[in-house]
Structure formats: C-alpha cells, structure tokens
Write a structure and sequence with these properties.
About 95% of the residues lie in helices and about 0% in strands. It is built from 3 helices and no strands.
C-alpha cells in the first residue's frame, strides 16, 4: 500500500511539475529526441549488421571448419583416454609389486 501511495504521489508531483515548468520540459524532451534517435539508430544498425553478417557466404566456411575441429577434439580426447588407461595400468603394477 505504501508503494502504491508513493507512486500516486510521485505521478501527481510529476504532472504538477510538467504543468508548472512545461517550457523547460519541452526543451529537455526536444533535446532528448535526437539522442534517442541516434542511439536507437546505432542499435538498429548493429543488430542489422549481425543479421547480415550471419547471411554472408563466408560465414558458411566457418561452419565447415567446425566438424574438422570436432574431429580433432575427439582424437585428442581419445589420446587422453588411452593415456589415462596406461597410467592406471602402471599404477596397478606399482601397487602389486
């Protein structure tokens, strides 16, 4: 209830402030609109660039490299598994002797 009353009071004071200082409010809004357009345009351009970059043909070549990278990683994992097995065998031999 306190939050609701605080919100109503803030809205009332904000409306009262707009009515009293309407010239200053319009001046700030007028100055903020170009900044909003600038930052909004930059954000839209960045998001559009990412979308276009995903559709470019050279991005497919990176997709073709991923399977070879996967196979390299699988080979490396297999080598590590073999090395772990070899070290386990050595450990077992050292325990029995």
């Amino acid at each position: 209830m306190k939050v609701f009353l605080g919100g109503v009071a803030a809205a009332f004071l904000g409306l009262l402030g707009i009515l009293v200082w309407h010239h200053e409010v319009f001046e700030v809004v007028g100055g903020a609109i170009p900044l909003i357009l600038l930052f909004g345009g930059l954000m839209a351009a960045y998001l559009g660039y990412d979308e276009v970059k995903d559709k470019l043909p050279f991005s497919k070549s990176t997709e073709n490299q991923e399977p070879s990278n996967d196979s390299k990683l699988k080979e490396e994992a297999e080598r590590y598994k073999q090395e772990v097995e070899r070290l386990k065998d050595e450990l077992d031999k050292s325990k029995t002797s």
